[in-house]
Amino acid sequence: MSDDISPAAINRKRLYWHSRRGMWELDLLLIPFLEQRYDQLEADDQHAFQQLIDEEDQDLFGWLMRREWPEDPRLRRVVKMIVEHAESTDNSAYRTL
To answer: Which CATH class is domain 7-89?
Structure first.
């Protein structure tokens, strides 16, 4: 584990912790996106991701399974990015037993 205590590192650790949900399906979508894409996002999209992970698991599940979409266009944009990332990336390393 890194000893970096910069504000950015602390925020990243908080995001990682909050990306770990009570539903395995959400973990498989949120954690790889955070680890592989978050740093390349524009500041507005990073902020939207931070807002997204504060939402309830049931809402996240519905959105990430494409059963419905968030009303907020910024959240909708990030949800679509997460879904597209999951569909285009081999995340088998996250599917451990």
So the answer is: mainly alpha
